[in-house]
Specification:
Length: 141
């Protein structure tokens, strides 16, 4: 009987690259977040999602930028400023159901495409975002 062993590929921490770096750092994350909120503001198919955010998107833009920097492996700006994200708790004041979840994901997917991310990366990120977005739901429908 032959035993096959799979050896893991170990990459040095000095040469590993984060998703934050791969995407282009802070300028790319800012651009993605701005495109996401611009689409939410412009497109009628995101009207329900836009309505959840109140009259101004300024605070949401800044907080998502700060959060995504750390989420993608860059600086933990959000945690430094606000503490642990506690995403579900922070979103409880907002009515979030399937429509809001789906519009958030569609808007982010379109923003990532508009920012020139590869289809494979968009799919990978949307899969990760889906789990978080679904966990944010606090009502049926």
């Amino acid at each position: 009987m032959t035993v096959t062993r799979v050896q893991p590929k170990n990459e040095s921490l000095e040469t590993s690259v984060t998703l934050f770096e791969t995407l282009g750092g802070e300028p790319a994350i800012r651009s993605l977040v701005d495109r996401f909120y611009d689409l939410m503001e412009m497109e009628a198919d995101f009207a329900v999602l836009r309505g959840v955010h109140g009259p101004s998107l300024d605070s949401a833009r800044d907080k998502l930028f700060l959060f995504l920097c750390g989420y993608f492996g860059g600086p933990n700006y959000y945690i430094e400023r606000y503490g642990h994200p506690r995403l579900r708790a922070r979103h409880l004041p907002f009515s979030i159901g399937r429509v809001e979840r789906d519009q958030w994901l569609a808007c982010m997917g379109r923003a990532m495409q508009d920012e020139g991310m590869s289809p494979e990366l968009v799919d990978r990120l949307l899969e990760a975002f889906y789990g978080v977005a679904d966990w944010m739901r606090n009502r049926d429908g």
